[in-house]
Amino acid sequence: MSEGGDLYFPNLEMTTSDHRLTFSMHAHLTYSKVIGETDFGKQVLQKLERDPRIAEFQGKLLSKGSSAGAVQTQHFAMWLAWCTSKIGEENAWKILDKWLEAEQIEVLSSLWVLGLEADSSIRLSGGLSIQKVEDMPDSNEKEKYLTVGRDSFGIGAASLPKCAITKAIKIPKFWATTPQKEIEAQKYWNQSQSLYDLASLLNTIPNLFCVPHFHTNYTVGLEPIGPFGGSGGGAPLFDVGTSTVSKISSDHSELVDLLLSKFVSKDDSEKDRLRLILSRLSQAKRRIQIEDKILDLGIALEMLLLNDNEKDQLALQFRLRGSWLVGETALERIEIYDLLKEIYEARSSVAHTGSLHRKNYRKAEKTKANIPRYENLAESALQQIILGGVPEWRDLVLGVKVS
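Above: the chain sequence. Below: its structure as tokens.
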């Protein structure tokens, strides 16, 4: 109540920022004071200013893999103070000396993904790892995904990455300025492609979902210049989202390694074809709308089973090839034959009428109920092709090698 007896109505305003500093801003503010206000920091800065290896960074950009940035002497000084706090001054100088002498450095190429979580980080072949968010290097992204507030609980939880696919990659220390250096830099992108391929291949495993979300880079371990070098570059990757979180474990490692090794051994045109199929399967598994699921599953399976552009009796070839590819017994092949018939008819219904069996409610309900079986069939068929290659379809269906 006001003094005159009138009611007082408080004005409500939305809070659009919690005013927290990001991790990198906090690191800079904290250690800039160490450098500017302590004897240790001032001595470190003076020593670095006399180092000709540090002076070499003037007018050059430090490569971070997918981006580059200018580095000042103060950044090295802040890093050295930070590293000293973790392992002592003598060891920090040893790391810096070795790093400054090297022509190449390592970055941790990191693909944050949605739909996947792990109880513990998983090491795979080829230097790849699936790291849970808690094990990733401290960064703005890690801080955001762990502390973003209400979105980290309840319905928003699945919209935040819970792990990342990573690989340590050697790159030239300085950003490419000559054609030869550009060739060297391209090797980074070629190696980073394996992160995306692994994310796609995980979708061939039943009950696993994996969606690329954000690609960036971090320094490896305690190497310079840690959290003081700015962003590692990258941008959000937009795709069909997921409200589902699946769990991967070390029990999957052997199959994942095998799938990836077989995939990378294929020629470029086959890898490109399989990437499109994997993308469709991944989308289908994440779709909520049944009609969208059916379209994506149908397209993925048609691309997989009708790859030779043979125009005769597509529906029949679709069923025969798929049943002989996946089925091991006569009963299994009959069951798969019928499932593929349902998928083909459902996809045709959606494609031509915009709805799923509009005038046949019972058939539509049966199709909806069989969605998990359709997904499992597509997963199995794609695994077969990746692991064993594309068969001679006529030989497979006839059960005999035709000359």
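The mean pLDDT is 90.
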